[in-house]
Amino acid sequence: MAGRHTTPTHSYGYEFAFTGLMTCVDCGCAVVAEIKKGKYVYYHCTGHADKGRGGYANCRRKYVREEVLDEKFAALLDRLHFDEEVLEWVRDALKASHADERREQEQAIRRCQTEHKRLEDRLQAMYLDKLDGRIDNAFYDRMSAQWRVEQSRLLREIERMARLKNHTWKTAFGSWNSRAKRASCSSSSLRMRKSGF
Q1: Which residues does UniProt call coiled coil (predicted)?
Q2: In terms of DSSP bridges, do strands 63-65 and 40-45 run parallel, antiparallel, or are they unpaired?
Q3: Running DSSP on this structure, what letter comes out for residue 30?
Q4: How buried is residue 24: exposed, middle or buried, by Cβ count under 10 Å (0-12/13-18/19+)?
């Protein structure tokens, strides 16, 4: 079962943007998404208000397109306003979070580098064993091919993590801050209620 704050993913791998954020106004059940005609995303109430003891609620028949929800959520977010104290708190939180993330990335890179060197050392030792006649050519070819594939995977992972290290907390905060500055009303006055559910 997915955690409360994770984005649910269906078996076909599609992440629905608003799943888990809304409940039905009529019956209080979860609002879920599904794909129609292979490309249109619709949201609807599960209609299980009676916990499965006699059918579905009528609100289950109401559908809303994801584009409509996009517009409504965007309008609500555009109305948010953050004072300097909140912006400072977000800046500090992003900075601390980025420092933790960077430390984890550096540790992961070191682990990959250590594993890559270990495989290289094994390849060298195995080559000497082959030259000394301790192992045959077929074993050497099979194992060296496996280890070279693993080394290539490790190098790709190191490169990927090195690119992630270049993403700084300042970039993340700048993106968040530019959206926040466009806001025009106090966040305390925001109440999210979905019409039609």
Answers
A1: 102-129
A2: antiparallel
A3: B
A4: buried
Mean pLDDT, the chain, integer: 76
Instruction: Band the pLDDT of 104: cuts 50, 70, 90.
Output: confident
- Domain-wise residue ranges, the chain: 1-79, 84-181
Q: Is the distance from CB of 49 to CB of 27 less than 8 angstroms? A: yes
The better pLDDT of the pair 122, 59 is held by 122
Residue 157 above 80 pLDDT?
yes
Which ranges in the chain belong to alpha helices (H)? Answer: 66-78, 84-131, 137-165, 169-181
- In angstroms, how far is CA 124 from the centroid of its own chain? 40
Return the structure tokens found at 140. Answer: 């050497």
Sole residue written with tokens 């109401």: 62
SS (H, E, C) 68-109: HHHHHHHHHHHCCCCCHHHHHHHHHHHHHHHHHHHHHHHHHH
Size of the chain in residues: 197
C-alpha distances (whole Å) from 25 to each of 20, 21, 64 are: 14, 13, 14
